[in-house]
């Protein structure tokens, strides 16, 4: 029996192997952490009964077609479930509710009053700081954000500040004039974007004025996306609130189990895309909210940087990035600022902008 961790994989060998599998499968395995890939190589070695790295490489070249596919299948960690870390989805829901509830009408009135009466302004505030502080407060405490907004309206520079706040996510949701763009990347077999769609569809029925929204979901794994598009699941329903189950899911008896079918109304709210995100994204648009959970952990340092740059470029100023609960950003020069450490939510605040 091979001890999984006993086998040392030399760099040259490792590179040749991932290049061969990469050519066969079209996946650039070089972007992932070596330890992550090595674990999968060792698992395949055990499976095909190869007791040395050399013999696995020989086996791989002789069965490249079949083994390449098998390697790819077990490499893709499609593990996902509906409302994964449900407190994060609650936070997402709260953001919309707080922006849309009646208190916001008061804020709007105050902004309008202040626009009519610029004499109310007293001191000049830096736009960047205003946006940062306002949006930070908003995500934590709506009341405090309201008070802060009131104080901004009493400044000399309020017209400028107002335009920044208007372009922030808060204002976009509240004004409902422009669509909110949401990207679930990676989406695996669809549980994450469907959770988002259920929340938004339910909210849309509760508010007279609700913004249009578009949900894009992407993943590198074609098979996972096929499952996502079908919207039929055998399990992973536990976390779904009962209300949503009744509204959006049909339970159907199979021979000895059940299958759960998502309603067309929810399915049609999502556009699924098959793509390797490190090579870029199909759309050039900027998103207001990006869910990027449980992918970062697999990338090596260099690709983490490339990947984060792509994500950051696709995020609107003032937009939110949701990471997985085990994921954190370390780089200090990024424009992605941690605003909710408990739920690993970041906001794009352009530090270089005047
Ligand atoms: C653990 S799942 C995360 C799914 C979901 N975000 C969640 O939190 O439940 C990781 C997914 O990353 C996908 N993936 C891996 N490398 C990728 C890449 N370069 N581009 C896009 N998706 C990738 C895998 O196919 C897999 O479905």
Summarize this entry quickly:
The chain is an alpha/beta fold and 354 residues long. It is 48% helix and 15% strand. The protein has three domains: 4-75, no CATH class; 97-175; 177-348, Rossmann fold.
Structure description:
The protein has 3 domains: 4-75, no CATH class; 97-175; 177-348, Rossmann fold (3-Layer(aba) Sandwich). 48% of the residues lie in helices and 15% in strands. The chain contains 15 helices and 10 strands. The strands form 2 sheets. A 7-stranded mixed sheet has the order 6-2-1-7-8-10-9. Strands 3-5-4 form a 3-stranded antiparallel sheet. The longest helix is centred in the first third of the chain and has 15 residues, at 11-25. Residues 76-80, 84, 186, 188, 192, 219-221, 224, 276-278, 293-295, 324 line the site of S-adenosylmethionine.
């Amino acid at each position: 029996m091979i001890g999984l961790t006993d086998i040392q994989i030399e760099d040259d060998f490792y590179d040749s192997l991932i290049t061969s599998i990469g050519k066969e499968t079209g996946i650039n395995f070089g972007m992932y952490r070596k330890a992550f890939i090595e674990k999968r190589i060792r698992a395949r070695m055990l499976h095909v009964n190869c007791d040395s790295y050399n013999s696995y490489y020989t086996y791989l070249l002789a069965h490249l077609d079949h083994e390449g596919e098998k390697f790819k299948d077990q490499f893709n960690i499609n593990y996902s479930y509906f409302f994964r870390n449900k407190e994060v989805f609650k936070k997402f829901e709260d953001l919309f509710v707080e922006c849309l509830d009646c208190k916001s009408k008061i804020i709007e009135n105050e902004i309008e009053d202040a626009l009519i009466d610029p004499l109310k302004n007293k001191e000049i505030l830096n736009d960047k700081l205003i946006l940062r502080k306002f949006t930070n407060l908003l995500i934590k405490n709506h009341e405090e954000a309201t008070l802060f907004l009131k104080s901004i309206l009493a400044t000399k520079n309020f017209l400028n500040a107002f335009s920044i706040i208007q372009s922030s996510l808060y204002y976009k949701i509240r004004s409902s004039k422009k669509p909110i763009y949401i990207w679930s990347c990676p989406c695996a077999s669809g549980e994450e974007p469907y959770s988002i769609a259920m929340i938004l569809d339910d909210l849309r029925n509760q508010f007279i004025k609700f913004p249009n929204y578009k949900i894009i979901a992407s993943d590198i794994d074609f098979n996972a996306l096929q499952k996502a598009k079908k919207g039929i699941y055998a399990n992973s329903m536990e976390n779904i609130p009962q209300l949503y189950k009744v509204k959006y899911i049909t339970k159907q008896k199979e021979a000895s189990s059940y299958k759960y079918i998502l309603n067309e109304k929810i399915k049609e709210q999502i556009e699924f895309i098959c793509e390797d995100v490190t090579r870029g994204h199909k759309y050039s648009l900027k998103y207001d909210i990006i869910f990027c959970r449980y992918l970062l952990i697999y990338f090596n340092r260099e690709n983490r940087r490339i990947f984060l740059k792509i994500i950051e470029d696709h995020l609107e100023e003032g937009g939110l990035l949701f990471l997985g609960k085990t994921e954190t950003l370390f780089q200090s020069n990024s424009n992605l600022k941690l605003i909710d450490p408990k739920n690993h939510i970041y906001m794009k605040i352009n530090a270089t902008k005047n």
